[in-house]
Amino acid sequence: MTTTKRPQFYRILLKLSGEALGDEHGVGIRPEAVHHMAAQIREVRELSVEVVVVVGGGNIFRGASGSEHGIERATGDYMGMLATVINALALQDALEKLGSPTRVQSAIAMSQVAEPFIRRRAVRHLEKGRVVIFGGGTGNPYFSTDTAAALRANEIGAEVILKATKVDGIYDSDPKKNSKAKRFAQITYLEALQKRLKVMDSTAFSLCMDNKMPIIVFDLFRPHNLRRVVMGEKVGTLVTG
């Protein structure tokens, strides 16, 4: 008698950068990239895995870089939060065209296009089989979407944060610049902080460390990689205590 392999995780938070939805330079919204992300999410939904997504806005506007060009930092951060909602709506559209019911919740009130973030409502959507996309960051300036991901993952009881990147894990140096860069299969929170590895910003990282929230950094641009991670295959780098 054969047994069907079951997913290792049943409630995940997927952290997408805004650049992942953009063109080869990470700018704008490229429909092919959005549909690729949606297809991978749909694939794990078919395994009855509950999925929440936090998406960045760097393909449209980044608050920190805006402040370097004279825009007041808090204003720039709010502009960046609005950009994340644009991305969330694009991803929602792609998911629903694939038959995956989706809800967008925003930390900034904009009732015409998104629900307000309400934790209990988000959990109920998951229980009903919907994908939930969180836009608007935390709703506060000076906090990144990495921090929003760490916060929401803990709030809704996710088992893991899956941080999608363009490389297959965490390296001790930039693998694009150093051919001898070493990839970590597993690393502790403290090691990542001490080595100043750019997994997430320190606020997000501390939140994960304090609440023992594991992080898997992996390459979402390889076909079926999200499914492989969910099924427990050794993909990417695991950050844990």
Describe the structure.
- There is one protein chain.
- 36% of the residues lie in helices and 19% in strands.
- It is an alpha/beta fold and 241 residues long.
- The protein has one domain (11-240): Carbamate kinase (3-Layer(aba) Sandwich), CATH 3.40.1160.
- The protein has a 9-stranded mixed β-sheet with strand order 4-3-5-2-1-6-10-11-9, sandwiched between helices.
- The model has no long low-confidence stretch (mean pLDDT 93).
Summarize the structure.
With 241 residues, the chain is α/β, with parallel strands linked by helices. Helix content is 36%, strand content 19%.
Short descriptors:
36% helix; 241 residues; alpha/beta; nine-stranded mixed sheet
Largest sheet: 9 strands, mixed
* CATH structural fold name: Carbamate kinase
What is the H-and-E element order?
EHEHHEEHEHEEEEHHEHE
Low-confidence stretches: none
Structural class: alpha/beta
By DSSP, the count of extended strands is 11
- Count of DSSP H/I helices: 8
Provide the domain count: 1
Strand coverage percent = 15-25%
Spatial strand order of the main sheet: 4-3-5-2-1-6-10-11-9
Distance between the termini: 37 Å
**Overall morphology:** globular
What is the CATH domain class? Alpha Beta
Measured as a percent range, the helix fraction is 25-40%
CATH H level: which superfamily?
Acetylglutamate kinase-like
Determine the mean pLDDT: 93
* CATH architecture descriptor: 3-Layer(aba) Sandwich
Rg, Cα atoms, Å: 17 Å
